């Protein structure tokens, strides 16, 4: 398909890369990627301070902590990477993801309000609050982009991070006033250390979210071409954007409630995949999920071993690496323009 240029919701002209479908998923490179991620998963199962071989209850601890942690890594990596990919398609901007649109900060604000109303809320209630506020915050961000015409698409993530900073400040203020600082700090430091059996099972809902995204992948891809093009091709643009926003909010809300804040993962992986494979969501989704799993598992392995026997929050490593890659992508975009 020839290269096409459309007007994004930011008001700036965005040049869309080649849109093409690669119907074959199980290609040799993809099989290699799955194999590498599987190896990382096995390494994760046997990495940790607790000696599962030398202790009597070693294998019990293996299934109580190691297996849930590895499963949570895989599901979270798929969720955040997939959310970033869908967000980039809807906004027609490669620089956005839940971290740079304020979605994750809105999820944190939802958790704060849940803790404010219910002193000891169950995980299901925390997750519901995070999902609702994620949806509200994402829709506010989209509404803002529709109303304000920006000359450069590079300004969009900056605006999103500014809005996120405001929401984060509000969450911190509420936490200080109502003495909820500890709960907020736990959320800001995204870590898989507390994950164990009975505390991660809601992450399996991410599989359902991925299935819905795969079903509506073609429509979401058309929505990524802009409202005029999507409407001319028979797609209800507003409806599909609302659906995509809802799916993103569910995934981000679940991760925020169970794990915490995981920055930049949804920015790095989709950009790398789109750079080599174009913008077809259906063919890119398996790649994005697998590479997202591998990236977060690798970061978690570093977090567990870099100062062993202590553990660095995985969000610290993701934030450091992601910020560097984000700056590199910004510079490349500016140079191209």
TrEMBL record:
Keywords: Cell membrane, Membrane, Transmembrane, Transmembrane helix, Transport. Pfam families: FecCD. Belongs to the binding-protein-dependent transport system permease family. FecCD subfamily. It is found in: Cell membrane. It is a multi-pass membrane protein. Its main location: membrane. The chain crosses the membrane at residues 30-50, 71-90, 102-118, 130-148, 154-178, 199-217, 240-273, 313-331. CDD domains: TM_ABC_iron-siderophores_like (cd06550). One of its GO terms (biological process) is siderophore-iron import into cell. One of its GO terms (molecular function) is transmembrane transporter activity. This is Iron chelate uptake ABC transporter family permease subunit. GO terms for cellular component: plasma membrane.
């Amino acid at each position: 398909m020839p290269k096409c240029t459309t007007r994004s919701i930011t008001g700036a002209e965005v040049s869309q890369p080649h849109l093409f479908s690669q119907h074959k998923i199980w290609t040799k490179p993809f099989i290699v990627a799955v194999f590498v991620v599987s190896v990382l998963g096995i390494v994760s199962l046997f990495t940790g301070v607790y000696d599962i071989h030398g202790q009597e209850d070693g294998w019990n601890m293996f299934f109580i902590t190691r297996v849930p942690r590895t499963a949570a890594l895989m599901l979270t990596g798929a969720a955040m990477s997939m959310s970033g990919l869908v967000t980039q398609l809807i906004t027609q901007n490669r620089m956005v993801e839940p971290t740079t649109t304020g979605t994750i900060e809105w999820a944190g604000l939802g958790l704060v309000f849940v803790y404010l109303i219910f002193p000891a809320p169950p995980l299901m209630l925390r997750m519901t609050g995070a999902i609702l506020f994620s949806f509200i915050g994402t829709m506010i961000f989209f509404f803002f982009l529709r109303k304000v015409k920006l000359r450069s698409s590079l300004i969009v993530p900056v605006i999103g991070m500014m809005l996120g900073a405001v929401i984060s400040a509000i969450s911190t203020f509420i936490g200080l006033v109502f003495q909820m600082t500890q709960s907020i700090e736990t959320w800001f430091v995204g870590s898989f250390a507390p994950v164990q059996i009975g505390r991660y099972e809601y992450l399996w809902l991410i599989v359902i979210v991925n299935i819905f995204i795969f079903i509506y992948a073609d429509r979401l891809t058309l929505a990524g071409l802009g409202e005029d093009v999507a409407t001319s091709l028979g797609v209800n643009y507003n409806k599909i954007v609302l659906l995509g926003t809802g799916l993103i909010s569910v995934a981000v809300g679940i991760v925020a409630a169970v794990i915490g804040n995981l920055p930049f993962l949804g920015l790095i992986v989709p950009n790398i995949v789109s750079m080599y494979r174009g913008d077809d969501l259906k063919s890119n989704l398996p790649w994005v999920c697998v590479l997202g799993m591998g990236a977060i598992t690798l970061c978690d392995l570093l977090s567990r071993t870099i100062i062993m026997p202590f553990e660095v929050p995985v969000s610290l490593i993701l934030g450091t690496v992601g910020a560097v890659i984000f700056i590199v992508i910004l510079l490349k975009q500016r140079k191209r323009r």
